[in-house]
């Protein structure tokens, strides 16, 4: 099949809200570069898109936007019953965005179904989207990882019954996602590890899933300036236990008693939240710098300035920051968790892999790498070479198009 008209759905898509936004931007750009027409349908925060990619905004009440998350909208903001549902679900502690976005976007698609050849959902996984194929369009869905992992890790970290109850309510959408996943025609995952985990956690037939590795933008390159001695870099797209930031902060506190180190943490933690409190409790605020809202160029410069980078996550379905750091030739200490070993290769190749959550192992591995310039250089070169070999957004887009064509052919055959 030649040029495809693709509807790409994402309930929230800004690159600064996490990997889903990065995936949307780079995949849509490369699909257009391959000659296809891509229209992104997104709720707020709206995505940053490249030239040639069309955007249709699907407005919501945007109830989680700073500086006033969990707000009560003015009466004049309510446009329809979906808005009312979104507000009521938020007030009862649920996360309504996937479901209410799906209700809104299905109305738009119902009016424009004849304009597209395929619909690609970026992990909305909401019940209304099961109606896409009734509109005459095949549905392909990306699941980056099963959110059951996030829920399980956060529940384990919760200290009170009230907190656990709140988390159960917040993650109530996960049951819907699992039920929807089992009914989907074709699911794309960013790694074999994620494919296995989606099958196990959501009960999905693995034969209906394809693992397509993600890419790294070509702007992520090794530095031309010397790295800063003792500088450790880490990234956390969310102030959540799954990112392992608490383990890293404990390890850095241990290291600073024995040597001069500094930690740059690319994150925007909740003001007064767990990360800020732990930094204060550990007495390391003088050596920890929090940064956020960086441009790609600023991020590349920062990645290239660190002697060692750390990925302490307790789980990842792929971990784009890991691959981006490798592209910058930055040596890694990373958790042996989820798809991270699939990205880095075996321990000792481009990274030292440690058990997730083990402060002692993490501190020792960082210290050993800081003391071994030859190994840092070897890790950096091997990481860069691995990225050049495996992680290309153009290759990812080509594989996604092949999946589209397979889904379209199967759908059309069923309708004959």
Defining traits:
seven-stranded parallel beta sheet; Rossmann fold; 416 residues; six-stranded parallel beta sheet; 2 domains; alpha/beta; globular; 43% helix; 15 helices
Write the layout of secondary structure elements.
Layout: E1 5-10, H1 19-33, E2 37-42, E3 54-57, H2 81-91, H3 97-112, E4 118-122, E5 139-142, H4 148-157, H5 161-170, H6 173-181, E6 186-189, H7 192-202, E7 209-211, E8 228-235, H8 245-256, E9 262-266, H9 274-282, E10 288-291, H10 296-305, E11 306-311, H11 320-327, E12 332-335, H12 340-344, E13 351-354, H13 359-370, H14 373-390, H15 393-415
Parallel strand pairs: 1-2, 1-4, 2-3, 4-5, 5-6, 6-7, 8-9, 8-11, 9-10, 11-12, 12-13
Helix pairs in contact: 1-15, 2-3, 8-9, 8-13, 11-14
CATH topology of the largest domain, by name, is Rossmann fold
Count of domains: 2
Main β-sheet, spatial strand arrangement: 3-2-1-4-5-6-7
The largest pleated sheet is described as: 7 strands, parallel
The low-confidence runs, each spanning 5 or more residues with pLDDT under 50, are none
Q: What features would you describe in this structure?
A:
The protein is an alpha/beta fold and 416 residues long. It has 2 domains: 5-215 and 393-415, Glycogen Phosphorylase B (Rossmann fold); 228-390, Rossmann fold, CATH 3.40.50.2000. The chain has 15 helices and 13 strands. The protein has helices at 19-33, 81-91, 97-112, 148-157, 161-170, 173-181, 192-202, 245-256, 274-282, 296-305, 320-327, 340-344, 359-370, 373-390, 393-415; strands at residues 5-10, 37-42, 54-57, 118-122, 139-142, 186-189, 209-211, 228-235, 262-266, 288-291, 306-311, 332-335, 351-354. Strands 3-2-1-4-5-6-7 form a 7-stranded parallel β-sheet. A 6-stranded parallel β-sheet has the order 10-9-8-11-12-13, sandwiched between helices. Helix 8 links the parallel strand 8 and strand 9. The radius of gyration is 22 Å and the shape is globular. The mean pLDDT is 95.
């Amino acid at each position: 099949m030649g040029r495809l008209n693709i509807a790409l759905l994402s309930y929230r898509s800004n690159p600064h809200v996490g990997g889903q936004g990065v995936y949307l931007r780079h995949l849509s750009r490369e699909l257009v570069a391959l000659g296809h027409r891509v229209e992104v349908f997104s709720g707020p925060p709206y995505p940053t898109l490249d030239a040639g990619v069309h955007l249709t905004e699907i407005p919501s009440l945007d109830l989680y936007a700073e500086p006033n998350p969990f707000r009560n909208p003015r009466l004049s903001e309510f446009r329809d019953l979906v808005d009312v549902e979104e507000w009521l679900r938020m007030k009862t502690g649920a996360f309504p965005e996937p479901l209410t976005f799906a209700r809104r976007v299905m109305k738009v698609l119902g009016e424009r179904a004849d304009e597209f050849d395929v619909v690609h959902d970026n992990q909305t996984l909401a019940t209304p989207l099961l109606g896409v194929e009734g509109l005459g369009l095949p549905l392909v869905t990306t699941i980056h990882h099963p959110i059951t992992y996030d829920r399980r890790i956060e529940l384990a970290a919760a200290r009170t019954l009230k907190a656990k109850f709140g988390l159960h309510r917040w993650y109530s959408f996960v049951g819907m996602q699992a039920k929807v996943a089992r009914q989907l025609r074709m699911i794309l995952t960013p790694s074999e590890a994620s494919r296995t985990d989606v099958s196990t956690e959501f009960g999905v037939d693995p034969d209906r899933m394809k693992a397509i590795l993600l890419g790294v933008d070509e702007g992520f390159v090794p530095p031309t300036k010397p790295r800063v001695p003792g500088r450790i870099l880490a990234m956390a797209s969310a102030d959540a236990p799954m990112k392992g930031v608490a383990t890293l902060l404990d390890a850095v506190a241990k290291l600073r008693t024995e040597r001069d180190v500094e930690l740059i943490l690319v994150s925007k933690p909740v003001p007064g939240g767990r990360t800020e409190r732990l930094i204060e409790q550990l007495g390391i605020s003088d050596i920890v710098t929090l940064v956020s809202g960086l441009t790609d160029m600023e991020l590349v410069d920062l990645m290239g300035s660190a002697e060692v980078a750390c990925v302490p996550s307790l789980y990842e379905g792929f971990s784009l920051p890991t691959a981006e750091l490798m592209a910058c030739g930055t040596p890694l200490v990373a958790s042996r968790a989820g798809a991270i070993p699939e990205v880095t290769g075996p321990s000792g190749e481009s990274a030292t892999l440690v058990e997730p959550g083990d402060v002692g192992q993490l501190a020792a591995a960082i210290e050993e790498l800081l003391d071994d310039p030859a190994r840092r250089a070897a890790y950096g070169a091997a990481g860069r070479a691995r990225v050049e070999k495996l992680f290309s957004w153009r290759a990812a887009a080509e594989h996604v198009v092949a999946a589209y064509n397979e889904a379209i052919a199967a759908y059309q055959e069923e309708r004959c």
